[in-house]
Amino acid sequence: MMNRTASVWMVSVVLACSGGLAQAQAPDAASETFFELKIRPVLAESCVTCHGEVKQNGDLRLDSRQAMLDGGVSGPAIEPGAPEESLLTFAISHEDELLKMPPEEPLSREVRDDFAAWIAAGAPWPEATAGGPIEGKTHWAFGPLRPIEPPVDPTGWATEPIDQLIAAKQREAGVYPVDRADRRALIRRATFDLIGLPPEPERVEAFVNDDRPDAYDRLIEELLASPHYGERWGRYWLDLARYADTAGDNSDYPIREAYLYRDYVIDAFNADIPYDQFLHEQLAGDILALEGPEEDYARQVIATGFIAQSKRFGTRKLEDIHQIIEDTLHTTGQVVLGLSMRCARCHDHKFDPISANDYYALYGFFAGTKYPFAGAEEVRRPSEFAPLVPPSRLSEFESQYNETIAHLKAELSTTEAEASQAIGDAGFAAAVEQFVGLPDRIERAEVELLRTTRSQNRRINGVKTELTQLEEAGPEALAPKAYAVRDGEPTDAEFQKGGDPRNLGEVVPRGVLRVLDPSGKIDLPETGSGRLALAEWLTDGPPRDLVARVMVNRLWQHHFGKPIVATPSDFGLRGTPPTHPDLLEWLASDFIASGWSIKEMHRRIMRSETYRLASTRDPNNEAIDTGNTWYWRFDRRPLDAEALRDGLLALGGNLKTDRPGPHPFPEVNTWTFTAHHQFKALYPSEHRSVYLMVQRLHPHPYLSLFNGPDAGATTAMRDSSTVSLQALYLLNNTFVHDQAERFAGRLVTSMADPDARLQQAYLLAFGRRPTDNERERAETFLAQYQASLISEGCADDRCESEAWSALARAMFASNEFFHVD
């Protein structure tokens, strides 16, 4: 082995030649971020296997700072503050055949420089993790899926993997599952869960009386086959995709074609498109469309609405594109990988091992993408939308294009002539008043001249703008369009220092997160943005297991009201560890093995004994596990905003179950929205709530009251609150009163017998018949209310329906109606 003096001399030469000493002065090398980003992952992946708790080659451990200071047979591994005197620095330089680490391939020059910088800064080790050694693995979320063998449940309660893994945690905690839910509770739970609507009484009774062993399985299949399934579960994805019908710029311009993406998501869930394909289409559907069959072209282009939905800013066309791309990256990172990347725009991530270089490597994929423009204060017409026909068919619109151009030119000529005449007339009138000399009439005439001039110039400019945009766009302007993206040229982004696009640094080649793929590189095509390669890397490359973990965690969350990882969009170092890590691993593995089928995951979860537990309380269990962390019962949950409204419409008999199509936005040639006069509208509807028009800057009054999603940002978990305004809404709002009247009208019209009518009311609203006590109370209420109405002069033919409407309002405002057991 080379002697100590020679080692020191050799390391000094290596560092000086590589610029390592200069990098060792880096100001952030002493930070916790630097260690977590650049040092810990290398130690975990490349060092502790041979120099850790299990194995210590040369009596050397590298899994803690103290172990490095203690060293092995050759002495201390590091000399804090002196990288040129540290054996570790020399060993990773690979300058000596007898002392080189790792023994096979050397670490990259960048990594070696990082270690030199860290040692020069004193080799700081974060206090939060100083107590335990580094394990020979990465953060739990970043590594490959672990094989899981579900343990046998000695009680016999659990026979399937989900239940076996749940039961193992219950045994550890000392809690025991309650009994199964009764069939009435179960069908109401499953129906609201999968389609977001109350079950019809006939279906409830049929299920209760169905003694076939596969009755429950049949129910699940029936619900999964319903077109309402996609409306329910597609809404959860729209929360994540920050779906809105407006752009979010300072005028909040409407997007007439946004609904196409909403409908794509609903259809994709109904068709059970494999989740990996679903992601490929949303990140690169425009590229896939060029390669696939023509019948899929429009659908796949529309899918990229996921990217197009990025929030817009400012008053000009695609102003602050760097912020638009940031929103794309932030949303994609959180939704697909469960990682926040926004911090890395300005500097290396403070918490997760994501560098600013990684950020701009991903940035290039979207910098080479053409985003649509919805319109804004200074450019009021939408443009750059993606055609829904292949390029080979755009020539079909040439004849129509030429006719439209000719029509617009004629219209411009006519408009200019009419404007000249109108302005001339106003000018003549003003001149006459000047001659007459009456001050007030002169002022009115001058004001009218100014108003006319402005108005006519707006007319002319409107036609000119439309003509110019059409001429620039060419025949494709007349093809059907989607608010979707188009592929551009290969683009490597310049590093934006401090996140400032005016302060640019070196060009960063397109690449991927090194924490998930140490090379940071993927094979890219010679043309285009490379988004398809990125999408395929996410589901077929090293991130695959993380992508699966994130999605199954979301599916579990919506079935049980709480996720296994309590921070569903943050699986990073500051996220919450899973309550059931083995269950999460098993679910993710099963998800991939099923071909990424979301419906198959529904079946797995809903057929489990855990899902079918009653929501009853158990004092012994509650004393140990107040929050039901170990799933010894099913948590009672409030209906979300959509299910509550849809349920009221269903009971009123006026729910429209067809698909409504586009919203009734004003004609585009009338758009004059500004930051001070923003677009704002509320369109009444009796369709399902997923079809309501939602804006980015103006929350929908109903949805926001009942904790609907924030359309301005990706929403992983909706807020949960119970406030007095919600109760007041259910008691006093006109919509609720109208639905109560409709509900009562259905009952009174269809059934003459009050007792049968009351039973039907309870079956519709609660999925069960009333108890004897409830029947007596309802009869007393109806009699007293009707007598009160008569005393106030209510007509006989109105008193009965009014009394039943009042009972309906009381039922709507009850906890039982508002919650699902």
Describe this structure in words.
The protein has 821 residues and is an all-alpha fold. The protein has 32 helices and eight strands. The protein has helices at 4-18, 20-24, 32-47, 65-70, 87-92, 109-120, 161-173, 183-195, 201-208, 215-224, 227-240, 259-270, 275-291, 297-303, 305-308, 321-337, 356-367, 398-436, 439-473, 531-540, 544-560, 581-593, 598-606, 619-624, 641-652, 701-705, 724-732, 734-750, 754-766, 772-791, 796-812, 815-818, and strands spanning 369-370, 386-387, 481-482, 486-487, 494-496, 504-507, 637-638, 819-820. The strands form four sheets. Strands 1-4 form a two-stranded antiparallel sheet. A two-stranded antiparallel sheet has the order 2-3. It is flat and about 100 Å long.
